[in-house]
Specification:
By secondary structure, the protein is of the alpha/beta class. It is 46% helix and 23% strand. The chain is globular and about 35 Å long.
């Protein structure tokens, strides 16, 4: 029985990782990494340039997917944190791998996210950061990843603040 339980857990992990790989592959050809940097579209219709923004201030980048339950649990915590840092020289961005802006807008509306910048179709950024699962949060400063957290945990909030505060 124990072997069957372990087999089921392994199959669940394999299925989740398959979704991650498929999501990243599906959107990797839509947004472009150019000489000017990794550019991803925002739900506002503008474009966000990872290379430019992360050089000028610390950025908390959270890569997530619309199908990810843990992402939907983590997003409000990070959005509240983004609100706490309003007016400071820091940016919070939720980079959804989903290709459709309208579906991401619905997710954001349903979660009542109001403080973070919201992007979609972020496959190239996800691949650049080496995302292995969702949600994946990175603290980037002067173009370098200086902190990395994966999965859902309220403990991540305190850890992110601890690394972020000295950079502001």
């Amino acid at each position: 029985m124990r072997e069957l339980k372990n087999y089921n857990l392994d199959m669940k992990k394999l299925l989740i990782m398959s979704f991650v790989v498929l999501a990243l592959a599906a959107c990797s050809n839509k947004a472009a990494e150019t000489q000017e940097g990794i550019k991803i579209p925002l739900i506002t219709g503008k474009v966000w340039n990872y290379n430019v923004v992360t050089q000028n201030k610390p950025v908390v980048v959270t890569v997530m997917a619309g199908f990810c339950g843990y992402c939907k649990m983590m997003a409000p915590l990070l959005d509240k944190m983004a609100g706490d840092y309003k007016g400071k020289n820091v940016e919070f961005i939720f980079a959804f791998v989903d290709e459709d802006a309208n579906s991401v807008k619905e997710i954001v509306k349903g979660l009542e996210l109001k403080n973070a910048t919201i992007a979609y179709n972020s496959g190239p950024l996800s691949m650049h950061l080496g995302v292995r699962g969702f949600p994946a949060t990175y603290l980037v400063h002067k173009g370098e990843v200086v902190g990395e957290w994966s999965g859902y945990s309220q403990v991540h909030i305190a850890s992110i603040k601890e690394k972020l505060n000295p950079l502001i």
